[in-house]
Design brief:
The complex is a heterodimer of chains A (425) and B (292). By secondary structure, chain A is α/β, with parallel strands linked by helices. Chain A folds into two domains: 190 residues, D-Maltodextrin-Binding Protein, domain 2, CATH 3.40.190; 203 residues, Periplasmic binding protein-like II (D-Maltodextrin-Binding Protein, domain 2), CATH 3.40.190. Chain A is 48% helix and 16% strand. Chain A is built from 19 helices and twelve strands. In chain A, the strands form two sheets. In chain A, strands 1, 2, 3, 4, 7, 8, 9, 10, 11 and 12 form a ten-stranded mixed beta sheet that branches. Chain A has a two-stranded antiparallel ribbon with strand order 5-6. In chain A, helix 2 links the parallel strand 1 and strand 2. Chain B has one domain: MetI-like (MetI-like fold). Chain B contains 13 helices and no strands. In chain B, helix 3 packs parallel to helix 7. Classes of the chains: A alpha/beta (425), B mainly alpha (292). The interface between A and B is medium-sized, with 35 and 27 residues.
Chain lengths: 425, 292
Amino acid sequence: MRKKWKWIGIAMMATMFFMAAVTTGTATELTMYYPVAVGGPLTKIVDGIVADFMKANPDITVKAIYAGNYNDARIKALAALKSGQPAQLSVMFSIDIYELIEQDAIVAFDDVVETAEEKAWLDSFYPTLMENGRTAGKTWGIPFQRSTIVMYYNKDAFRAAGLDPDKPPATWDEMAAMGKKLTKPDGSQWGVMIPSTGYPYWMFGALAMQNGQVLMNGDGNTTYYDDPAVIGALQFWKDLGSKYGVMPTGTIEWGTLRQNFLEGKTAMMWHSTGNLTAVKKNAAFDFGVAMLPASKRRGTPTGGGNFYIFKKTTPAERKAAMRLIQFMTSPQRSAEWSMETGYMGVSPAAYETDALKQYVKGFPYAAVARDQLKYATAELSTYQTGRVRKLLDDAIQAALTGSKTPEAALKEAQKQADRLLKQYR
Amino acid sequence: MKTRLSRHVQGWLLLMPAAILLIAFTHYPTVATVIDSMFSKGTAIRPSRFVGALNYERMLDDPIFWKVLANNAWFALGTIPTSIALAIVMALLVNRSIPGRAMVRMAYFTPTILPMIAVANIWLFFYTPDIGLIDQIATSLGFSGHNWLGDPATVLPAIMVMTIWKEAGFFMIFYLAAMQNIPPELKEASQLEGAGRWYYFRRVMFPLLMPTTLFVLINAVLNSFKLVDHLFVLTKGGPDNASNLLLYYIFETAFSYFETHFAAALTVVLLVLLGIMALLQFFILDKRVHYR
């Protein structure tokens, strides 16, 4: 009697395994890591877009895993690659590109696209946004959540100080002069705050470009930290605090800056356009958004994350991944993403959709980042990018806290960066 | 029929689960790290190769490494005695039967049960200049506010204050348990002899608490190297490495710069430091510990 039950049990297990094997064979499964670096309920929005994709494509299942900030997302994705459960694609920092190539972790999109239509798709994005995703003649990253730095300003504070709320500063001198009028002597309101923790090199990329010099070349093997224009930019950043008195001296915290602006502690702030929707929802005052002011010219680095496809994938998975990326960066989805977050639409077509056209008409500040694209450059990205970036971060913080002069700090950083990058030239 | 051999085999089999865990998670990783530290960083173009002590030479030339060691030394010096002293004081306070004793004990222990990252996010807003809690209290009392986390001179003390606040409650629990075990006759006898409270504490209570002090000291030393979670939220190594600690530097090197072999060399240094401290404590302090 017992023997009969034993054989029935074994037969049931065998059929279960067989069925499981059969069902997993039909759908392509994709795992995707993505980071969130700005405020807002973005995981819900991503889950919504992914659910729509799975409805439209029943033969692909996608698991989108929120992975923290850009650093965490890269660590998790690379750790998953080394383990037995690799991800097939991920959104990661646009500037991770050289590290990922060096680790032989990603595959170029040129090797995945086949039809002429797909090849044209690679060129349908804003060229400035593609700068961080292209090297050695190939495309490695497709823009998804991209931004530029913009200047948010408190119109009510402008009015109270006797300034025209529709004329935000357009040059460095104007920003310093207006900042002086906006800074209250009792310290309850500052003129402007530029954050120097978190991503100081990003803010500095804007200042340097406005002063006429970008921070690195397009091949990822040379930096220009000790160029006189770059030193001048750091000197200006320091002077805002120590000479003009419109900004607190020392370092300014990235994580609390938005709160500072919303509470009226600062009349102007330089921050990512990705915060736009969060500021819009929470500002109790009339605020405006403007392009960053110019010195010799206007300028800003782009920022944000790109889609990458990993090398450890089958051709079927690569095709499925590309379909997912095409869906998530399509004009309608990009427009939806832009309206929910403040990140830019990644292609001109996104701004031609009805939804975004209406949104921009009603809220023109949503187009500031796009209009600033013609003054934009790539974000700081080189080989050994982590170390090279940290050298600049340390130099900026040393200059702002007064422990080194801007010239000494940047010359030291350039010397170390040269040592690291020499081997790639 | 138990032969000598089968008894030995049985002994080893009983030992095996613990031995496997210990070897797999302690001894093997240690040996692997030491071996790893002698290789160079591998990339797709240039695979990793044996380089001997090159990583260690690089480490000695690295100014950030020395800054990080100095920071850790200050951090240990600042947090260990203070948190132990604070723990003893808090335990003494709640040892007596004061009204609301259970509430006070819970209040002292609450910082320990809160997760570090959540606590660090709250303290980030405490330390925020002008709008943060500490600056608001300071300005209402007439002092000027300060950029606690942005000034290289105050960032490490600020981090130390937060760590002490978090740790002291944990140590207090151990001291409280030990104090409950001291027979009250000793206190009564000392009062009869005419000894003051401080004399009683110094000559009777504290020596009897030595086993707990040894345990707490080891924990405090380990924590001063281990607790770096708040750095991710508060300062990320602080203005120009002013609050960078060794374990945070190891994490950055391994995962931001992908230099796992250099990080292995740094880890070996950390292991050696901790090992030396543990040996020092066990051999020097052990003589002064009275076990009953």
